[in-house]
Amino acid sequence: MTLTLHFHPLASYCWKVLIALYETEAPFESTIVDLGDARSRAAFLKLWPVGKMPVLADTERQATVPESTIIIEYLATYYPGRSELIPADLDTARRVRLSDRFYDLYVHEHMQKIVGDRLRPSGQKDPFGVEHARASLAAAYAIIDDDMASKRWAAGQSFTLADCAAFPALYYANKVAPFPGNSTKLAGYFGRLSQRPSVMRVLREAEPYFAMFPASDEA
Predict the structure, then answer these.
(1) 3-state class of 90 per DSSP?
(2) Same-domain status, 42 and 98
(3) Per-residue pLDDT tens for 121-152?
(4) From the centroid of its chain, how far is CA 13?
(5) Within this chain, do residues 123 and 173 fall inside the same structural domain, yes or no?
(6) Which of 66, 107, 163, 182 is 20 to 30 A from residue 75's alpha carbon, by CA?
(7) β-bridge mates for residue 6, sequence order
(8) Collapsing DSSP states into helix, strand and coil, what is residue 52?
(9) In angstroms, how far apart are the furthest CA atoms of the chain?
(10) 99 and 190, same structural domain?
(11) Residue 82 DSSP symbol
(12) 201 assigned to some structural domain
């Protein structure tokens, strides 16, 4: 097999790449990385010393590709499959990339701040940072709710890279900072994402690991 994805089934940025792989139907193998296991951690750090997942290894092209967005760009270039996750039209592609950045930077990052704080030991938590993250998520939710009034998917009428980014960010964000009750367009978009076959597959595969997710702010 040419492609191997190094990932963890619970990791949100890994979901982003898995959704893209299932959308394109690109054949790949997978290796679960357990950073708590010395041997697994050492093998992964040898592949990518930064130590962040996911990483795609392509033996045919002798390429090691980190970072979720870059992996999906790589797949679109060399293994496009059946789904055009990055449109050929340059203006449309720019909108897709902007939406991808929005979900990564203004939803995903703030969600991870809240989740990360839950994992901190007592006495080392950051309530100010969490409060800021929650306020930032509320602002992002309002933007998405307004933006989705005239669209089916994140960047228009077709499923793209932006939607691969949106689902994991929104899924976990909704766990730690639930969508407001009046955000009906946001909720509708999230519902459509949740029914996407590629997304449903990712959720099924992650289900055995959900108990590892920190369900509350209690240490």
Answers:
(1) helix
(2) no
(3) 989 999 999 999 999 999 999 999 999 999 99
(4) 4
(5) yes
(6) 107
(7) 31, 55
(8) coil
(9) 51
(10) yes
(11) T
(12) no
User: Do 73 and 104 fall within a single domain?
Assistant: no
Same domain, 185 and 103: yes
3-state secondary structure 14-40: HHHHHHHHHHHCCCCEEEECCCCCHHH
How would DSSP label each residue in 131-190? HHHHHHHHHHHHHHHHHGGG-SBTTBSS--HHHHHHHHHHHHHHHHSPPPTT-HHHHHHH
Domain span holding position 55: 3-78
| pLDDT beyond 80 at 107 | yes
pLDDT band at 44 (very low <50, low <70, confident <90, very high): very high
Which token pair is 104?
A: 């990564």
Q: How far is CA 68 from CA 33, 170, 198, in A?
A: 16, 16, 16
Which residue has 């990055």 as its token pair?
86
1 — pLDDT class (breaks 50, 70, 90): low
Pairing of strands 3-7, 29-32: parallel
Residue 133's identity, in one-letter code, is A
